[in-house]
Protein 1
Amino acid sequence: MTELLIVLIAAHLIADFPAQSNWMIARKQNLLFLLAHILIVAVVTIVLLGSFPPILLAILIGTHLAMDAVKVYLLKDTIGSFLLDQVVHIGVIIVLAFAFPATLGQSWWPDILSPEDISIALNLLVITSAVIAAIPAGGILIQKAMQPFSDQLAADEGTGLSGGGKYIGYLERSLIILLVLSGHPEGVGFLIAAKSILRFGEINKSNNRKMSEYIIIGTFMSFGWALLVAFLSKTTLQLL
C-alpha cells in the first residue's frame, strides 16, 4: 500500500506541476486544455504504475476532472481553492491506495527491472515528489498565501530584480531539502542566519515596516514548508 501511495502521489505532483505550465493553466477554462491536462494525468499515472487498472484510473481521472472543473469554472484563484484542489486530489489518492493495494502486483515493471532497481526507483520517486512539493508547488502555495500582503505593497515602487523573490525561495527550499535528506539538518540554521544577515541590511535601510514584516512572514512560510516536506520525505524513505 505504501509503494502504491508513493507512485500515485508522484504521478499527481508531476502531472499537476512540472507537466502543467503557466501557459496551460491560463487557458484551462477552454475545455480542450482542461482535457489535455487530464490526459497528462492519465498518461503519467499509467507509466509510473506500469499497468492499466481500469477502475482505479476511472476514479482517479473522474475525480481529478471534476475537481479541476469546479476550481476553474466556479471558484476564484485563491489560496483556499488551491488547497481544496490539492486536498481533494491527495485524499482520493489515499483512498485508492487503501482500496486497491494489489495494483502494483499487476505492473509490467517487475518484468523489466530487478527488485533492487524497483527499490531505487521508489526512492527516486519519493525524492522527486519532495522536490516538486517543496519548490514549484511550495512556490505557488506561498505566493497565494502571501497575496493579501503583496497587494498592500503593490503601490510601493521596489528596486528588486524581476522574479528575484521567487527564485530566492526556490533556492532556499532546494537547499533545505538537500540538507535534510543528506542528514545535515543543522545546516538549515546557518541558512536562516545567512538570510537574516543579508535581509537585515535591506530592511534597516528601507525603514519600511510593511516590507520588513512581509519578508519575515514569507521567509518563515518558505522555511517551514520546505522543512515539513523534507522530514515527511525522509520518514517515507526510512519506511522503504
Protein 2
Amino acid sequence: MDTLILGLPVAYYIAMVAKVLVAFVFVLLTVAYATYAERKIIGHMQVRLGPMRTGWHGLLQPIADGVKLFFKEEIIPSQASKFAFLVAPLVALIPAFISFAVIPFGDNVTVAGYTVPLQIAAYYDQAGKQVFDVNVGVLYILAMASLGVYGVVLAGWASNSKYSLLGGLRSAAQMISYELAAGLALIAVFMLSESLSLHKIVADQANGAWYVFKQPLAFVIFFICSLAEINRTPFDLPEAETELVSGFITEYSSMKYAMFFMAEYANMITVCAVTVTLFLGGWHGPAFLPGWFWFVAKVYFLIFCCMWIRATYPRYRYDQLMRLGWKVFLPLTLVNVVATGIWVMVFNK
C-alpha cells in the first residue's frame, strides 16, 4: 500500500518537486545561455564573431559574466530610497520566473502506477506536464506580467534620478498601451477554444489546425505587443541608452543589475512559451520525437526570432510607439474580435 501524506501518494510529491526543478532549471539555463546566444547571433548577423575568449567559442562567457557581476561592488546612491531600491529587482524578477509555472510542456506521465497530472491543484485530474494547472492560466500569466512592471517603476522612482524616473514612467505607459492590445488579441483564441485553460487550448489545436493558421492577425499582434511589454528591441524605450543613459537601471550595479537582465530574458522565454502554447500547438508535433522536444524547439525558434528582430530593426521613437499601440493594434484587435465572433456564429467553428 502506498504511503500517503496529507491524503496524497508520495509519488505525487516526488513528481511535483521534479516538475518545479525541471521548469526552474530550464528557465535559468536558457536565461544564462540566451545572453550568449544573442551576442553570437547578432555578432554573426553583423559580420563579427561575438564572444570567443572564454571557453570554446566563448561558451563559458555567461559563467564568467555571472562571476564578475557577483563580485562587483554594490553601489547605492546616497539619495535613493534604500528599501525600495533593494526590493525593486526582486519585484521584477520573481513574476518573470513564476509565470512559467502554468505553461504545459508535455502530456500525461505515470509514476508508481498513478497518472500524474503534473499539476498541484488535484492529482486525480488528468492534465499536462506543468507545475500548476489552473482553468484560467492565461489570466494568471497576464497578471504576473502586470506585476513585473511594478519592479521597473519602483526602480525608476527609488533611484532618485531623472533618467531612471523617466525610464520607469515610460515602462508603465508602454505596459498599459500594449497589454490592452495583447489581451484583445487573445480573446479571439478564447472564442475558438471556449476556455482559458492552456492545457485545453493545446488539446483543441491537436484536434484541428494550430491557431496561428486560424488567427494569423492575432498571432502577429500578440507577439509584437508581448515584445513591447517586456521592453525588447525595437521597443526598449524604458532603457533607451541614447537619451536616458540606461533608463530605470542607470543607478544599479552588481547582481541587482544582473537581476533586471535575468528578468528581461526570463520574460522573453515566457512570452515565447505562451505564444507556442496559444498559437503553435504547444508540445504537439510529429510522433517520432517526444512532445517536450517539440515544445522546446518551438520556444527556441521564437527566441531566435526575438534576437533576429533586435539585430534588424532600430528603436522606435516614443510617439511612434504610442501611435502603433493605440491607433493601429487596438483597432485591428477589435475588428478581429468582431470578425471571429461572426465566423463562430455563422460556421460554428
Protein 3
Amino acid sequence: MSYIDFISTIHSETNRDYLARVNDAKFPKAKAASLAKKWDYDYWDGDRRINYGGYNYIPGRWAPVAKKLINHYGLKPGNSVLDVGCGKGFQLVELANSLHGLVVKGVDVSHYAIEHAHSDVKEKLVCCSASTLPFEDNEFDLVISINTLHNLHNADLFSALKELERVGKNKYLCVESYRNEEEKANLLYWQVTCEQFNNPEDWAWWFDVTGYSGDHSFIFFK
C-alpha cells in the first residue's frame, strides 16, 4: 500500500468560503445536507450552496488524473478499470480517451447521476452501493474510488473496502481527511454528505481492519 497523490491539484483549484457555506440564510448547513444526501438534482445540478451547483463535463479537466493512473498502473489496451462512485462518468471518459481500447465501467448510488451521465459511458454504468459490487473476484485490472467512501456509514464502509479489495487486482482510493483542528473545522463546515471524519491514522486503521491493500490519498480542506 502506498500514498500516491493524483487528486490534490484539482481539489485546490476551488476557492471555498467555509463560513459562508455553513451560515447561509437560504440553505443553512442542515438543510443543504438533507437535500444533498438524496443524491438527486440538488446534489449535482442544484444551487451551489447545496453542493456542486452544476456538475458538467469540462473536456480535459480530469485528463491529467487519467494519464497519471494509466502510467502508474501500467494499463494497456484491453485492461479494465472500475470507478466506484463514478457520478456522471467524467473520469471514465478521460480514461477511455487517454487509452484507446481500455475497458471502463462505473457504479454509483445515484440514479440521477447515471441518468445524466456522459453519453460516451452511460451504458457502462450501474446503479448500486459500493458495499455490494456485482462483479467477480479480481475482475478489474484497476479499481478506483475518488471522493466517495467517506460518505459511507461504518458498516457500509467496512463492506466497501472489502469489495474494492475483492474485485480489483490494483486499487486506488481518495477520501477526505484532516491533519489538524483547522482542517477538521473546515471539513465540517464544507461537507454536506461526509459520514467519516477520520485523520490519516484513523484511515490507516480502516485499511488494516478490512484488509485493504491498495493505494490511497487524502484531500484536505486548508
